[in-house]
Amino acid sequence: MSLLKRLEHSSDRPSQATIGKRGPVPAAADPERMLFGAIHQAVVREIKPELLLDQSREEELQASIAEITDRCINESGGMMSRQDRLRIMQKMTDEVIGFGPITALLNDDNVSEIMVNSAHQVYVERKGRLELTDIAFRDDDHVIQVIEKIVAPLGRRIDESSPMVDARLPDGSRVNAIIPPLALRGPAMTIRKFSKDPLTMDSLVSFGTLNPAMAKFLQMCVLGKLNIVVSGGTGSGKTTMLNCLSSFIPSDERIVTIEDAAELQLRQDHVVTLEARPPNIEGKGAVTIRDLVRNSLRMRPNRIVIGEVRGGEALDMLQAMNTGHDGSLTTGHANSPRDMLSRLETMVLMAGMDLPVRAIREQIASAVDLIVQQSRMRDGSRKITHVSEVVGMEGDIITLQDIFVYESSGKDSAGRVTGEFRPTGIRPVFAKKLLEAGLNLPADIFMSRGV
């Protein structure tokens, strides 16, 4: 649906779902809504489609919206303060140029996540804590219109035949939307925002996600071309950590990134970004993560960075790691390093290959060098709780050894989680590989305080 058509469609009328539940809202009961609807119609009628579609003329578009809004308010004959005029003007600008009521939240740097549970219930996450906002959409149709405005430029769709969609905003923020009949309370949308300036490893150290020794160690692991899996639960900061690790990849290497919805923010020049594609309306044309992993092997990558493994692509990733594509990075959902190994086993089996479990474990043990376990604590902070080396096989079991761990000691008076990052005293087996690459790990970096 074109932008002009979406604007024409988004007239201020209650949705059928709203009418069925509460009855239509009398027009006289909401004069501001009537005025907003009249301004909206004037904008659709008077602004040329080419102005709506040309991003380079955004200031001109804003000026036109302001002029139309001001004129419509004057013609309505009602008395209105300057503050109310500016508020309606901003609301109309957000509707036409931005993403409706949530535009202000998207522009708020303190908001890290936006959760639209229904048209009249919008939560945000600020500094790790959830808050209910006073933001509201007009009705369910209004929420769907904003979702369509997000997904349409990406060639994706959302309707009854395809009621779930993953997408991204122009700034790389990740969007998931789901609508009825799957969402029983009306369309819902979750937006994981990305900061305008990507976080660095130094930023994570200052936030208390890890300590300087761990940051230095991880930098050397990336430079030494170790294969690293970042593991953690939902919202634990896996993608942010993957971004930070990727920043250590030398600029003279060719990087291929593979994601469901592109959100990695690599700053190197030699980067090829690949994004999976859902099936079209006939159920055809899908391109999966696994398809892209296979294709990437023909693109002469020095490094393959996979946003997240969650299925059969794990087998292709492990084979790539085992056939000369050292230094590959990815993330996965798991609650501990040991759980991550079990998840990788399960995902390899999802590839449909009839492989014995021991063969799968040998693949994992020879491919993965390091697991970085990240967790979201009760106070909303993110911590790296384990940095664990995959040592090899003992019998039928993959052996792990922790290099660094986080030990929690409780909470302080402000309710913040307290604890310390501690080296276990174990020097990793792959230290020899790093030394061969000219990277000498200082002995004291692994020295346990208890020794």
Task: Describe this protein's structure.
It is elongated, with a radius of gyration of 26 Å. Strand 12 (370-376) and strand 13 (382-394) form a beta hairpin. The N and C termini lie far apart (66 Å). It is α/β, with parallel strands linked by helices. It is 35% helix and 22% strand. The strands form 2 sheets. It has a 9-stranded mixed β-sheet, with helices on both faces. The chain folds into 3 domains: 1-97, no CATH class; 98-194, Beta-Lactamase; 201-446, P-loop containing nucleotide triphosphate hydrolases (Rossmann fold, 3-Layer(aba) Sandwich), CATH 3.40.50.300.
> Superfamily at the CATH H level of the largest domain?
P-loop containing nucleotide triphosphate hydrolases
Q: Could you please say which CATH topology of the largest domain applies here?
A: Rossmann fold
Gyration radius, in Å: 26 Å
**β-strand number:** 15
**Class computed from helices, strands and strand pairing:** alpha/beta
Unreliable residue runs: 1-29
Chain-averaged pLDDT? 85
CATH architecture of the largest domain: 3-Layer(aba) Sandwich
Helix content: 25-40%
Q: What is the strand content?
A: 15-25%
CATH level-1 class of the largest domain: Alpha Beta
Roughly how many Å apart are the termini?
A: 66 Å
- The side-by-side strand order for the widest beta sheet comes to 9-8-10-11-7-12-13-14-15
> So how many helices?
16
State the domain count.
3
Outline the biggest β-sheet.
9 strands, mixed
Task: Give the overall shape, derived from the CA principal axes.
Answer: elongated
